[in-house]
UniProtKB/TrEMBL annotation:
This is Major facilitator superfamily (MFS) profile domain-containing protein. The chain crosses the membrane at residues 44-63. Keywords: Membrane, Signal, Transmembrane, Transmembrane helix. Gene3D superfamilies: MFS general substrate transporter like domains. The keyword Transmembrane helix applies.
Length: 67
């Protein structure tokens, strides 16, 4: 078995798991965030969507190939 391919598959699955965990946390915390910051439903949706964008940027920065 190719160890590099196995490591890549493991890291990719961990990224998916952590993204799902972040989504679950923000959905539970959104009720408290909405009350504390007096945000509308649209603003909460934008806040939750930012998690996906920041996750994408973080994974691109962390997995940047060194050519």
């Amino acid at each position: 078995m190719n160890k590099y391919a196995l490591a890549c598959a493991f890291l990719a699955s961990m990224t998916s798991i952590l993204l799902g965990y972040d989504g679950a946390v923000i959905s539970g915390a959104s009720l408290f965030i909405k009350d504390d910051l007096k945000l509308t439903d649209t603003q909460i949706e934008i806040l939750a969507g930012i998690i996906n964008v920041s996750s994408l940027l973080g994974s691109v920065a962390a997995g940047r190939p060194h050519l």
